Amino acid sequence: MTGKKKLSGYQNRKRALLKDKKELIAIKKCRKIQDMFLEKTSTVEEVPVEIEKDIQEVDQNTFPKVTEAVHNEVPEEIAMDIQEIDQNTFPKVAEYNVIPGSDPALWSINNFTQDYFCIHGFSQNVSSMNFSKSKRPYIISQKGVKKTYYRYFNLRYLQVTLKNGEKLKRDFLMYSESKGVIFCGPCLLFGNKSVFATTGFSNWQKAEERILEHSNSSNHRSNIIKMKDRGNIHGRIDNNLVTQVETQRIYWVNVLKRVVAVVKRLSSRGLAFRGTTSKIGCNNNGNFLMALELLAEFDPFLSNHLETYGNPGKGNTSYISYNIYEQFINIMSKQVLNTIIQEVKASRYFSISVDSTPDISHIDQLSFCVRYVNNKGEPVERFLCFLDQIGHKADDMANAVFSVLKKYDLNY
Predict the structure, then answer these.
(1) Which end of the chain is more exposed for a tag (fewer CB within 10 A), N or C?
(2) In angstroms, rounded to a whole number, what is the distance separating the alpha carbons of residues 127 and 102?
(3) Coiled-coil segments, which residues (predicted)?
């Protein structure tokens, strides 16, 4: 009888290391709350550099040796799994799911890029009117004398005049500011051997002729049809799933908007959030839930949400628990602190005020405040932070002050 050979401790440790790396990548790809309220440059966070280096080390130094040198010791199915992860997973983690920029010469063509531009469309990148890199030299001979003249990209290339005098816009053309050339968007996304989809077109002397020739080609028209069909979300097979996901996303965004409004008002007044309980309808549930109940009396959307998701208990999503508003408080506090630091740096001159006061647990806290003149000419005083257990000696307090100034990069 022949059975599967048991893996050695070395091989088990390598498999456990690989599993940890995959879990860390999956966690990093999860969305955060603040991503729903910012203009994102990426739908999913890229893998940090140090993680990629660790993965490459595991990829280059571990698995090829396991599959080659220890082939007889490792079961065949495990070796196949390692090879698939080695070849298909790690080299491509940071290539996909990144929103491409406006310059077509810098696009990384993949399924995500194609879906993104098919749904959202693309810009022709001519708003800046900076066509300096499109400069191309041309040599002509007149009576045996060679002269050099230059041509640039012109906005007239982006429209065509029909025989009846009607002018139509060539929406498929895009200008690349980095290379000074023009690309055909649909052909660049879905492939074409034309120069409009490979290196970019810049022969301005024959621009009208070549653009017209390309726009009438069968490959160009086929790519336009592909782009329109792919961008038509209502025609997709997974239309119901897409609609359901988008509906859910909009619903929770509207819930979070109301939560943010309550957090802003309570924190600006310095009021407490929590009460003795966290139940909707209880008189001792605190100011946060009380404010939500008050809004729900005049807001049918929030009223329905509290009836459906109120008092769900742990493990259920409601976005009205203390964990949610504490995250928002941290996000807002960082934003306020950054704004204060920017105003202090812009004012150039500022003074500081520090004072030690024991809290309710009889622990001294050193409050650090700055005073400066804002851009409106008004003197303002802002609180920066608390410093715990500094001591009453002059050296200790001076070192604490210098550490805060260094931490926020304030030039004293």
Answers:
(1) N
(2) 12
(3) none
